[in-house]
Design a protein that fits this description.
The chain is an alpha/beta fold. An eight-stranded mixed beta sheet has the order 3-4-2-5-1-6-7-8, with helices on both faces. β6, α9 and β7 form a beta-alpha-beta unit. α3 crosses α5, α3 runs antiparallel to α8 and α6 packs antiparallel against α8. The longest helix is centred in the middle third of the chain and has 27 residues. The N and C termini lie close together (6 Å). About 2% of the residues have low confidence.
Length: 305
């Protein structure tokens, strides 16, 4: 079994984390090893599935939950890339080691590392399914494409610069050390590898949307962004759908349900599958509260390859 990453994207307030938690439970009910990962700046998976906030790595029933916040990501980024970044930067500029902490706080770094984190977890193959509750945006993919192009051009510039300085031979004489050119090329390949992974059958993209005009607009925008990178959505998950039979004599309910039906017609054509999840009577705070969603999602979620 090669494993599967099932990601959930959407605007804030769409119920994305709730849907991701229900999906994790649905996969666990199939007897699969499930890791639920949240890279949302305000994670909720730990609270829903474990009854605890900030679930760095908790085993909650049949689901393992991992949540990382921005500070966690900065620390992890420095541990993984800090020495390499310093190696490259110091080859061109007279900088101190604290340049690494400065770079770690740059805009986009945390978003980029979130993608790398999920990519790395998938490659370890410790779980059958990774359910990924993402940040409420698709901009990090655009940054990743720019990053891959940047590394290609940076490599060209570095070759010229090092040739002029006469430093390349000096760097090559270091035993076991990688040259800045080799590190830059590794980063470029990594960025390309993540994009290829997100467009592969091992990743299934789901957009969570409320059935209204704003949700429809955001969903269209996200899908357009993903398609620019060759990533096709598996499903649009319409969340908090009002079912007319729930309150047949409630006029406001019926009017809102009718308005939702118009939005659902347009959402239906945006992905191969449209999954409808009912509006719950109360905000879910425990795994048992998710049962109505879990039952519906069981019919929508793909099996791991």
């Amino acid at each position: 079994m090669s494993g599967l990453v099932v990601s959930f994207w959407g605007k804030g307030g769409s119920g994305k984390s709730t849907v991701a938690a229900a999906a994790a439970l649905a996969y666990a009910m199939r007897g699969l090893r499930v890791l639920a990962v949240s890279t949302d700046p305000t994670p909720a998976l730990g609270l829903i599935l474990c009854g605890r906030e900030r679930a760095h790595m908790l085993h909650c029933g049949d689901v393992t939950v991992l949540e990382v916040d921005e500070e966690d990501v900065k620390r992890l980024w420095v541990e993984r890339f800090g020495d390499e970044v310093y190696e490259v930067a110091s080859a061109f500029l007279p900088v101190e080691k604290d340049i690494v902490n400065y770079v770690a706080g740059a805009p986009g770094i945390t978003d980029q590392y979130m993608l790398y984190l999920v990519y790395s977890l998938h490659r370890k193959q410790d779980y059958d399914v990774i359910v990924w509750d993402t940040a409420a945006a698709g901009g990090s993919l655009r940054l990743l494409r720019v990053e891959e192009e940047l590394y290609r051009h940076l490599g060209d510039a570095a070759r010229l610069y090092l040739r002029i300085r006469g430093s390349l031979e000096k760097l090559r004489r270091r035993e076991k050390a990688k040259t800045p050119l080799e590190l830059i090329e590794e980063w470029r390949r990594l960025a390309r590898g993540i994009l290829d992974f997100l467009a592969s059958p091992s990743h299934r993209l789901n957009i969570v949307s409320q059935p209204d005009r704003l949700g429809l607009h955001v969903t269209r925008s996200l899908i357009e962004e993903f398609k620019l990178h060759g990533i096709e959505p598996q499903a649009v998950i319409a969340n908090m759908v009002l079912e007319p039979e729930t309150c047949p004599d409630c006029r406001p309910w019926q009017e809102d349900a009718k308005a939702q039906q118009e939005a659902l017609k347009e959402l239906e054509g945006l992905a191969p599958r449209l999954c409808l999840l009912p509006r719950l009577e109360k905000r879910p705070t425990t795994a048992s509260d998710l049962r109505p969603l879990t039952e519906r999602l069981t019919e929508c979620l793909p099996e791991p390859p």
